[in-house]
Amino acid sequence: MKRSWIIAGLVALAAGGWILSGQIDLGHGANGSTATGTPNATVSEPEGPGTRPRVRIMVSTAEPVTNELILQGRTAANRRVELRAETHGSVADVLVDRGARVAAGDTLVRLSVDEREARLAGARALVAQREIEATVAEELFRRGHRANTQLAAARAALDAARAALRVAEVEMENLVVTAPFDGVVAERMVEIGDYVDIGDPMVRLLDLDPLHVVAQVSERHLGMIAEGTPGAARLLDGQMLEGTVTFVAPEASSATRTFAIELEAPNPEGRFIDGVTAELTLPYADIRAHRLAPSVLTLSDAGVIGVKAVDADDRVVFHPVEIVDGNREAVWITGLPDRLRLITVGQDYVRAGDRVEPVLTAQIAEGEEPR
Questions:
Q1: Pick among 3.90.226.10, 1.50.10.10, 2.40.30.10, 2.40.420.20: CATH of 31-64+288-363
Q2: Each residue of 81-115: pLDDT tens digit?
Q3: What is the pTM of this model?
Q4: In 250-277, which positions are buried (b, 16+ CB within 10 angstroms) versus exposed (e)?
Q5: What pLDDT, in 10s, does the model give residues 299-356?
Q6: Coil, helix or strand at residue 3
Q7: Which of 6, 37, 335, 356 is packed most tightly, with the most Cβ within 10 A?
């Protein structure tokens, strides 16, 4: 008989003896349940405290945590305006450059006067003449030497002269372009000597205080946000902006079916600028959650994420959980009792329903591992 056949026979006999001895139960799942999904009625295991699987545990207590909604957005100026020419003429002076901070009323651009000053002087002289004519017409009408229609014509001529004077004055005022609010010059479109016509752009001005953070929220989370909700925005360089929600769109975007929201944050020094990507964080609920290391998380046979704990009878219990926040160092999870004995090491080697020997981390000797 070949040696390989002898070895195969011995292995088969050993396996059969192990199965018949009741040391394993082929009907059990990975979490201590039968193939039909019902918990084991009995568990074949040694009852001596030194013979049970030993796991490391910690006592975890839930803490109050503010649940947060995180959205991707961008910064936006409070106001933006493109100042355009209101009259025609050549540019006589440009008093600002890009990036300059200006106050309301500061002169930005001045156009050449040309013949407008002469027209203004002529309009003033005509008004003076029409005022004298109207005064004389009123006196003659009072004495009965003028008809009512003649008096009305004199008054109409005076009104027309005053209107022409006002047009000439506005023409002169339009030669000077001033800042309508405190802001920053984002773009300057003209140079000295350029000729501009009515409507030509000259300066683009931004108001960056307060600064807005604009984001889109789905209808699922829309009810969690309201005007006055405090929030914070983290920029790509790590800087933080804090403010409150000042706008929630009353209608959805037809393209994305999302709703625009705006967070308003003070920016008195103009440190933060327009158009920067930002991560917007808005608190919407206070909950109780456990702060745990990501390594304690495990999966059930059904693919449900959760943790394993030990009950009062030292049996393993699987708890499905929901992750509400986290990073590489820790996660905040809900769905657990306020206080439980959580398995931190060895959870992948025991099943729900198994009776174990739990050992607190502080009770394990240095360098010793649970078995």
A1: 2.40.420.20
A2: 999 999 999 999 999 999 999 999 999 999 999 88
A3: 0.59
A4: eebeeeeebbbbbbbbebeeeebebebe
A5: 988 889 999 999 999 999 999 999 887 888 899 999 999 999 999 999 999 999 999 9
A6: helix
A7: 356
